[in-house]
Automatic annotation (TrEMBL):
Protein name per Swiss-Prot or TrEMBL: ROK family transcriptional regulator
Pfam families per UniProt: ROK (PF00480)
SUPFAM superfamilies: Actin-like ATPase domain (SSF53067), Winged helix' DNA-binding domain (SSF46785)
InterPro entries: ATPase_NBD (IPR043129), ROK (IPR000600), WH-like_DNA-bd_sf (IPR036388), WH_DNA-bd_sf (IPR036390)
Family indicated by similarity: Belongs to the ROK (NagC/XylR) family.
Superkingdom assignment: Bacteria
Length: 393
């Protein structure tokens, strides 16, 4: 690649990434953000329009003085397929480059999905969507958020214990079944990426993220603005830490780890629910006044407090973000949780700390998985032979 081609690719990437992350922007705003001149911006936008990646819209005339600048937005028909396999359901969605979610489905299951079964279901659902809801859309790839250890170098699922998957080449299975490029990653790592770019931790450089799902508790880290994945990609497994539990009466499992004690299954049990998606569980917890529910919520919050204080002591984040059932636990009283964590951790580590719930809610893992699937497109927007790209005439 010669220098001029490399510079053009980098500039196309900058423009597309700005529109993707910040939403629709005027030509004038893009010119200011990139420092490029107006004619170069016009040329880049023209190429992205021709490539079917962005569209230009008429500006809102209200309150404008002088000649308005057209607004550039991600094309609504460019999507990635996001997948989250869990012990009780397979959730899938098509996520647009502009983060619109035109279709999603939660396929509840009464058994543990095998990797082969997962690949077949994903391919079948993509085929149905392409024939109906996604007709005319460009599907650039598949991102899969797995509740377990995923090797960063090749996407091998080393261990998803609750699904009973071990050393599974899930990327290859799904790619062969669907005919699309596939990226596989840890669900919480994908969740923190989404909340960092678009959600509760946007603009923050030091983040601890804990995700509570049907398979337990995972975590993601951002330090100095960059994700921390560890030597092989396994960092952030907070759920496997053994929490300090001050009162013996709070312990339910001898030698149990955090996700044994702060548990979605225990919450469902006291609520007398067999299963529930995240909004249903959160609503049930918020509405219940049953003494056994209030007692279990209080118990889990005490143990979660210690776990968060330990993480704050080690990592000194500016923000802790909680997703899934952990968000429902925290939402009982966020201020009180922050006070409890601050009273337990070293005072200096909490001076500027905030605790927030994931604002992307049940979409966070799907948006994070889609972000991974969009990575190659955002790096080289007009790469020849990219999936779904317009063919040269």
């Amino acid at each position: 690649m010669n220098d001029s081609v490399g510079i053009r690719q980098a500039n196309l990437s900058r423009v597309l990434r700005l529109v993707h992350v910040d939403g629709p922007l005027s030509r004038a705003a893009l010119t200011e953000a990139t420092g490029l001149n107006r004619s170069t911006i016009a040329d880049l936008i023209g190429a992205l329009v021709e490539g079917g990646l962005v569209e230009e819209r008429a500006p809102d005339p209200v309150g404008r003085v002088g000649r308005p600048s057209p607004v550039v937005a991600a094309h609504p028909r460019v999507v990635a397929i996001a997948v989250n396999p869990e012990v009780d359901a397979l959730t899938m969605a098509a996520v647009g480059l502009g983060r619109r979610i035109p279709v999603r489905v939660r396929l509840e299951v009464d058994h543990l999905l095998t990797p082969d079964e997962t690949a077949a279901l994903v391919a079948e659902q993509i085929g149905l969507w392409k024939a109906e809801a996604l007709v005319g859309h460009r599907v650039v790839g598949v991102g899969i958020a797995v509740p377990g250890l995923v090797r960063a170098s090749d996407g091998l699922v080393r261990d998803a214990p609750h699904l009973m998957w071990r050393d599974v080449a899930l990327r290859d299975l799904v790619s062969t079944a669907s005919g699309l490029p596939v990226v596989v990653g840890n669900d919480a790592s994908m969740g923190v990426a989404a909340e960092h770019l678009f959600g509760a931790a946007r603009g923050e450089d030091h983040i601890v993220y804990l995700n509570g799902g049907a398979s337990g508790i995972g975590g993601g880290l951002v330090v100095n603005g960059s994700p921390v994945t560890g030597a092989a990609g396994y960092a952030g497994e907070f759920g496997q830490n053994r929490p300090g539990i001050a009162a013996d009466t709070d312990r339910t499992v001898d030698g149990g780890v955090l996700e044994d004690e702060v548990s979605r299954a225990r919450l469902l049990s006291v609520l007398r629910l067999r299963s529930a998606d995240e909004p249903t569980l959160a609503a049930a917890l918020a509405a219940s006044t049953a003494p056994e529910v209030r007692a279990e919520v209080a118990r889990q919050r005490r143990i979660l407090t210690t776990a968060l204080a330990n993480a704050v002591n080690v990592l000194n984040p500016s923000v802790v973000v909680l997703g899934g059932y952990l968000a429902a636990l925290a939402a009982e009283d966020l201020d009180l949780l922050l006070t409890a964590v601050s009273d337990t951790a070293m005072p200096s580590t909490c001076e500027d700390l905030s605790i927030r719930v994931a604002v992307l809610a049940e979409d966070r893992l799907l948006i994070g998985a889609a972000e991974a699937a969009f990575a190659d497109l955002l790096r080289d927007p007009l790469a020849p032979g990219a999936p779904g790209a317009p063919r040269a005439s």
